[in-house]
Amino acid sequence: MSVGDTESVKAMWSEFSAAHPQLMQEAATCSAWHFCSTKADADELADLVLAGVKRATAGALWSYEAEGEDIPRVGDLSVITDWEGTAKCVIRTLSVEVVPFEDVSEEFAATEGEGDGSLEYWRKGHWAYFSKELAELGREPVLDMPVVCERFEVVYLGE
């Protein structure tokens, strides 16, 4: 999904742009998207962001490469939506690092805020997700596969 795909995203983007012109000028890129590949997960994770629990996300670098998509950069702005494309908030990327799956830290797992926040939960859930995602690319996950670890902050909740 790109910015402007739904009326909700267009409205939030317009409100945010008017309220925060400096952030707009500093942004490397602006986009709109939802988390995960199912409605239940996308909606749950958007709610965790709104609650202040989820402040990070992770993706397989190989997926970014296969899709020809740039990895996030510090200062990127994103409208987070639910599964249906209803805008929920705007986030700004604070940091990005690419690390082997096996080196993702306990602190990062807690910041991602899913499940019980443990590294064990993070590894189990992300291994399953990456296994499915990478299978569609003809690849299998390995412990040293590169993972894009992005930290973000909510910069706009809308009106």
Give the fraction of residues assigned to helices: 25-40%
Oligomer: single chain
CATH class: Alpha Beta
CATH-level-2 architecture? Roll
What portion of residues belong to β-strands? 15-25%
Largest sheet, in brief, is: 5 strands, mixed
The shape, in one word, is: globular
CATH superfamily name?
Answer: Sulfate adenylyltransferase
Strand order in space, largest sheet: 1-3-4-5-2
Q: Fill in the CATH topology.
A: Sulfate adenylyltransferase
- Low-confidence residue ranges: none
Structural class: alpha+beta
N-to-C CA distance: 22 Å
Mean pLDDT: 93
Encode the helix/strand succession as letters.
Answer: HHEHEHEEHHE
Number of strands: 5
C-alpha-based Rg, rounded: 15 Å
Compute the number of structural domains: 1
The total count of helices amounts to: 6
